[in-house]
Design goal:
heterodimer, A: alpha/beta, 14 strands, about 30% helix, B: alpha/beta, D-Maltodextrin-Binding Protein, domain 2, Membrane-bound Lytic Murein Transglycosylase D, Chain A, 10-stranded mixed sheet, two-stranded antiparallel sheet, 11 helices, 12 strands, globular
Chain lengths: ~350, ~350
């Protein structure tokens, strides 16, 4: 079975290299997953670059088993959307009844210099425009994330905040974030990857592969995915977690062979690798370690707590139904991978 | 109480038509959290369009993007047609205090009516008599009418608008939801009632019995169903935003004596759904032991309702009394009292879930 997959991929590569440059994108088609395929290999086959795997990932969340493409299933291969123009949204700031708080420098989700001020920003605005009970709204920027939850959102200086990861609230209901805030339906899923040195023999096919490994994740980042019910890696001492001050420090430790892998979200990892000139020397493993979700949040004691949450959720459902959601996500992903090329 | 209105008018005319003081025109303004340039322009020039002028004068600080405005930034507001007044280089602008109606004040005590069994908003056994009773009391204490005020509990909600408020037996009442009077001013509620600023906002949901074979899965299945609403609760919510369930007889409405009576009809199979706000519905499900059996229909709510204090148009002093309440509400909203009350009550609400 594995042989067939490899053979097919070799053939596919042969065809692609025979094509003139610029004509290598095979998209807007349905592809039947072959044994041995991964999202990386499917992206390589259709787009000529593995980085575009997130396009396939976000377009096929219903048919993927977690992050794994199931052999025999059909996956849709969307076209890169960088040519598509964003829909013009009217500025809704006069007499805003809902002010959303976010911060910059969080690519590709929120940044004032990114087109449409980021993927999450565009999704939230489009959701509010599409909501059945719309309100005039505004987006405010405060670049110090540490001020957002407490005090700014907790004290209702602003109404809602985004994009925020949701802790495992079922397991830790006393977590301050769970206790004080409502979370919207997910804005989007965020794959958390393992990044290793090129050539290292670290593979990740099941959780057993991680036991005994040294992982690096910056201090202050969540760790609940490393210590959940089905993997008590931290509380049972199954792995060594190194937590320096920054993602850069993690990648430095990786290059110095002080850790076996850096585990951060796919976008953060990719941008740090490029910024640090490590492209080709640090590579992601093709199976995400965990999946987190980004949300819009509002204080549970806000006078419009449940109704604002409804406005966002109903708008998001509408965007997903009309296909606008996919259009926005794929356009930003495309821009992102173009940027880190 | 008409004297109040006169006093208010006099105060406004002094503030509004006095000559602009040249030395006070323009100046430095410190941006408050959440403010946009349009809001600042609206507040200081009465014209949101002048945001572009503020942007132009502060380009060094803001750059090309007006959205760069941030709390704590000190912006120069240019003098345009004598506005804004009262700014100086070092002085922050504060919101002008609500007009104090006290001088010459109301001759009679302000009598406020509410009803119990409306968790968590108005219910006598709750701390402070419930969230909105607490808010109303704090707003009235802030407004401090000379002859005082009193909150009365009359549990027959159907009697509140008429005759209690319409005959001026009591002055104002809460909590009541407001229809979209902008879209349909001829509605009975819009023609007869005056509404305060909103006190709270809730989702009104349809609760159904999941153990019944033909339970309503979504609002698309609503045709021909019978829904229950307690006596005295608003019914305009079925006929709004392009939906005409009662007018076009899409549904039948059963009015029962109380929320409990509605839920009893539901479990007996005599109605297909009960329509209540999310909080009251969940509380009744819990106290009646219907958890796991009765639940809200997912998706769109029946309505998104704001809750208000109301006065009746037939009350000779209704408007001025409502003005007293609104001034107090604005004051407790600005000084943090309102939010502190919500924090205390809503924390209890979510702990009860």
């Amino acid at each position: 079975m594995l042989r067939v997959g490899i053979l097919r991929r070799v053939i596919a590569l042969g065809i692609l290299t025979a094509l003139p440059a610029g004509a290598q994108v095979l998209c807007d088609v349905t592809y039947k997953v072959q044994p041995g395929d991964t999202l990386f290999s499917i992206a390589e086959t259709h787009y000529g670059k593995t980085e575009q795997w997130t396009l396939v990932y976000y377009a096929n969340q219903a048919v993927l088993d977690g992050q794994t493409a199931v052999p025999g299933s059909d996956v849709y291969i969307p076209c890169p959307a960088s040519e598509a123009a964003p829909e013009q949204m009217p500025p809704r700031e006069v007499g805003a009844e809902l002010t959303l708080l976010t911060a910059g420098n969080y690519l590709p989700f929120s940044d004032r210099n990114w087109p449409e001020k980021g993927l999450a920003t565009e999704l939230v605005k489009a959701a509010l425009e599409a909501s059945p009970s719309p309100l005039p709204y505004a987006v405010a920027w405060e670049d110090d994330w540490s001020q957002h939850l407490f005090p700014l959102l907790d004290q209702k200086t602003y109404d809602m905040g985004f994009p925020w990861l949701k802790p495992d609230c079922a397991a830790t209901p006393d977590n301050a974030r769970c206790k004080n805030f409502h979370f919207s339906e997910p804005l989007m899923e965020l794959p958390i990857m393992l990044f290793k040195r090129e050539g290292s023999d670290f593979t990740y096919e099941s959780d057993a592969d991680v036991i005994g490994k040294r992982l690096c994740r910056p201090a202050g980042y969540f760790t609940h995915d490393l210590d959940r019910a089905d993997r008590r890696w931290l509380s049972e001492g199954k792995i060594t977690l190194v937590q320096p001050d920054s993602p850069e420090a993690c990648f430095e430790q990786l290059m110095a062979d002080k850790v076996d892998a850096v585990t951060v979200n796919v976008f953060l990892g990719a941008s740090k690798i490029v910024a640090m000139g490590l492209k080709g020397r640090v590579v992601p493993l093709d199976q995400p370690l965990s999946r987190e979700h980004l949300h819009v949040i509002i204080s549970k004691t806000h006078w419009r707590g449940t109704t604002h949450l409804y406005r966002i959720n109903a708008g998001l459902a509408e965007l997903r139904e009309t296909g606008r959601y996919d259009e926005i996500v794929s356009r930003h992903l495309d821009l992102f991978w173009e940027q880190v090329k | 109480m008409r004297t109040i209105l006169l006093v208010v008018l006099v105060v406004i005319s002094v503030g509004g038509f006095g000559p602009a003081r040249a030395e006070g025109c323009g100046g430095t303004y410190t941006v408050k959290p959440g403010e946009t340039l349009s809001q600042i322009a609206e507040a200081h020039y009465g014209d949101a369009e002048l945001w572009a002028r503020i942007h132009a004068d502060n380009r060094a600080q803001l750059g090309e993007t007006p959205d760069n405005v941030r709390a704590g930034m000190r912006l120069r507001l240019p003098c345009v047609d004598g506005l804004p007044e009262g700014l100086s280089g070092e002085t922050d602008v504060t919101v002008s205090p609500p007009v104090d109606p006290a001088p010459g004040g109301p001759a009679a005590r302000i009598d406020i009516v509410t009803s119990g069994d409306f968790w968590p908003f108005a219910d006598q056994p709750l701390p402070g008599g419930g969230l909105l009773t607490d808010v109303v009391r704090a707003a009235m204490e802030a407004a401090d009418p000379e002859a005082g005020f009193a909150i009365h509990w009359v549990n027959d909600r159907a009697a509140h608008h008429e005759p209690l408020l319409s005959n001026a037996l009591l002055d104002i009442g809460f909590p009541w939801s407001r229809p979209d009077c902008g879209a349909e001013p001829e509605r009975h509620e819009c023609e007869t009632l005056m509404f305060s600023a909103p006190l709270f906002e809730v989702l009104v949901l349809l609760f159904t019995d999941r153990t019944k074979p033909e339970t309503i899965e979504s609002l698309a299945d609503i045709e021909g169903k019978t829904l229950c609403r307690p006596s005295g609760y608003s019914t305009y919510i079925f006929d709004q935003h392009g939906r005409n369930w009662l007018r076009d007889e899409v549904i039948s409405l059963k009015v029962a004596a109380s929320p409990e009576a509605c839920f009893r009809l539901l479990t007996e199979g005599q109605v297909d759904g009960v329509v209540l706000n999310e909080f009251l519905g969940h509380q009744k499900i819990k106290t009646l032991g219907l958890e796991g059996r009765v639940a809200p229909v997912q998706g769109r709510p029946i309505s998104v309702d704001t809750l208000h204090m109301v006065a009746h148009g037939a009350h000779p002093d209704g408007k001025s009394v409502l003005g007293v309440f609104d001034a107090g509400l604005a004051e407790i909203r600005a000084n943090g009292t309102y939010q502190a009350i919500l924090d205390a009550h809503m924390t209890r609400v979510w702990e009860a879930y």
